[in-house]
Design brief:
This protein is α/β, with parallel strands linked by helices and about 290 residues long. It is built from ten helices and twelve strands.
């Protein structure tokens, strides 16, 4: 189901956007078209992509993502800043995105078809993901860290955890890769056991039932779990002895929409500078509230 909202559209905004849309080309380019054909996309699909028209934009949001409500509000702010009417279209994934997670979980062909037929911009695309040449990212709108979480009062840092005790990570993540690389620098007798889990919910449950002594986890997952389970006693340790790149999120657009992307990125930069995005992220529990 799509949700439509409107904003006032002064004449200067219409002229500016009309000019931007007018120079937006549908040509995919020979290299892009060839890559899409190799994925099984037909020439008709490549030729018959939707055009962005008028003074309206459609944002697609993963309805199951932990960030969905934040992204709905952010889409409204971006559209307002650009004097656009906008539509929010919810997309779902199979299997659904797990609780306390953001993973989009769509294959490249599905993402292409969404952009070609339904979405002007897909929200929640991780900048850590590999971008095919037929997707162009906006300026990042949110960065969120990976943290070390332990049961309250048990440990002050990673080096306090006994080496024989297990540490939980989510499989196939940067956090797990960096932990593994760090442990390779230690003598074998000084390494922790790594235990893999499929999603953030499982990670938290295994921490609380004492299956593991610590977990490396996306910080918003911990914040959301604590909000839903105030009885949970979890300490978050943000300083760890190896760097993990934060998860940064962007809008995914088609490369032929570079002028639209420029406008959306300008709005993101302005909303970052004036603190709007930070306030929204805190209000939706994606960033911790500042201390007293």
């Amino acid at each position: 189901m799509a949700e439509r909202r409107s904003r006032s559209s002064p004449a200067n905004g219409m002229v500016r956007l009309a000019a931007a849309f007018a120079v937006t080309a549908l040509l995919s380019g020979a290299a892009i078209a060839q890559d899409l054909r190799e994925l099984g996309v037909t020439d008709d699909e490549i030729r018959n992509q939707r055009r962005v028209t008028g003074n309206s934009i459609t944002f697609c949001i993963n309805a199951d993502s932990l960030m969905a409500d934040f992204e709905r509000d952010l889409a409204a702010e971006i559209a307002t800043a650009q004097l656009l009417e906008f539509e929010i279209a919810e997309i779902t994934t199979m299997p659904p995105t797990p609780a306390y997670d953001f993973r989009l979980g769509l294959d490249d062909v599905t993402i292409f078809r969404l952009l070609a037929n339904r979405c002007d911009a897909i929200m929640g695309y991780s900048l850590l993901s590999a971008f095919p040449n037929w997707i162009t990212p906006s300026l990042p709108y949110l960065g969120t860290p990976t943290v070390l979480a332990v049961r309250s009062g048990e440990y002050a840092g990673l080096d306090d955890i006994p080496r024989a005790r297990p540490i939980g990570t989510r499989s196939a993540t940067l956090a797990d890769n960096y932990l593994m690389a760090y442990m390779r620098t230690l003598p074998e007798a000084s390494r922790w056991e790594r235990v893999f889990y499929r999603d953030n919910g499982q990670l938290i449950e295994r921490l609380l039932d004492r299956s593991v002594d610590a977990i490396l986890i996306w910080e918003p997952a911990i914040l959301a779990y604590e909000a839903a389970h105030p009885e949970a006693r979890i300490d978050v340790i943000t300083t760890i002895p190896f760097a993990i790149e934060p998860s940064q999120f962007v809008l995914a657009l088609r490369p032929q929409e570079q002028f639209i992307n420029l406008g959306l990125s300008d709005a993101i930069a302005a909303l970052t500078a004036d603190g709007t995005i930070n306030r929204l992220a805190i209000a939706h529990g994606l960033l911790p509230a500042p201390g007293p």
